[in-house]
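Note to self: keep these together.
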Amino acid sequence: MYVSPNFKSKAALKRALASGDKNISCYSPGPFPCPINGSVAIEGPHYPKPHSWYGTATVVDGYVTAVK
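Structure:
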């Protein structure tokens, strides 16, 4: 799964969550939909750039609320 907007690093994603950005969503570029609630594996940055970070995100109502 990917997150939107496209973060260059997991640290940048965590900073955005800490600052209170509530508009970070999760999506699947393939045929399998991203769950609306639950835990998902994420990676970035988006294709065609090589993935340089990976993590686990908690998704609530379609938006990322936490990242490990």
